[in-house]
Amino acid sequence: MDKSWHKILIIASQIIGCCSALALIMIGVFSEDFNEQHIFWSGFYFYLNLLVLILGIFSLFWHPKFFKLIGIYGIIVAIINLLFALVIIIPILEWFTVFTALGYVGLLVFNMYKNIE
Questions:
Q1: 3 φ, ψ to 5°?
Q2: pTM of the predicted structure, to 2 decimals
Q3: Which DSSP string do the residues of 1-51 spell out, in sequence order?
Q4: Cβ–Cβ contacts within 10 Å for residue 114, how many?
Q5: Percentage of the chain with pLDDT > 90?
Q6: What sign has the CA pseudo-torsion 51, 24, 107, 80?
Q7: Residues near 70 by Cβ (< 8 Å), separated by ≥ 6?
């Protein structure tokens, strides 16, 4: 079975992830004192982060060594991120989405560590 679409999704999620990381840096550069720039970069980060989560989940979920519970956690994080992106963002929700997404990244690292042969 051709798995090239997995590789394409992984590469796309890596590229978008780098853009998301840049947006996260820019959130720090433009603190809330720079209201318009901060809001722009925050929105950009959260939408890119959502896209990275979705692409990452779809690219890994059918891999035989991927822990499905981690994928389910990722789906839940993506849904929460989407819901928060659709409502008014308040700082506590921003922090919650960042930490749950970073938790997903940590679980991905754990998954890779457990599958080292």
A1: -110, 20
A2: 0.75
A3: ---HHHHHHHHHHHHHHHHHHHHHHHHHHS-TTSHHHHHHHHHHHHHHHHH
A4: 9
A5: 5
A6: negative
A7: 104, 107, 108, 110, 111
